[in-house]
Amino acid sequence: MSVEKELEARSGGVCELCGSSEGLSVLEVAPSDGSAEQSIYVCSTCRDQIENPENMDETHFNCLNDSMWSEVPAVAVMSYRVLNALGRQDLIDMMYMEDDIKAWADAGLKSQLNSAVVKDSNGVVLNAGDSVVIIKDLEVKGAGFTAKRGTTVKNITIPQDVPDHVEGRVNGTKIYLKTEFLKKV
Known about the structure:
Blueprint lengths: L2 H9 L13 E4 L10 E4 L1 H8 L12 H4 L5 H14 L2 H4 L6 H9 L10 E2 L5 E2 L5 E3 L3 E3 L4 E3 L4 E2 L11 E6 L2 E6 L3 E3 L1
Antiparallel strand pairs: 1-2, 3-4, 5-8, 5-11, 6-7, 9-10
Pfam family, one: YjdM
Organism: Sulfurimonas xiamenensis
Protein name: PhnA domain protein
């Protein structure tokens, strides 16, 4: 039986990440030997966003709330990697994977080393995963709310393409924050 036929049978003819039945194809979960155990069946939308992370749409990947619990290791690994790319540490922290599956998931993550050093308002170096406190009320353009002084932002990420900014969630919305208005906790 071909890998595609095995995956189609395993998935019930739908994307193993989002459940769509449009434009399905095999996606190997690297490092892979090409077997069905190390591949997933995905729709064209999921495939495009996984292969082009700069196009990743977080709202599309709300489906990972379900697929991250898959008993199929390759699906769990890909869910982990996409959640990592989206900076969804809250969901990653809920996941449980055996040590060998976790090692496989980590092996495929791109290095997130940032050559630029990002510092808070006091000159303290900030790293991905740190928590910071907002030191000034900040109007969030386009979101219709103000990030209040004293708000703690946990599990920040350091974007490589936007200097002197960090990315984090305030009021459930992912936003960029200028480091000059932050203090490391």
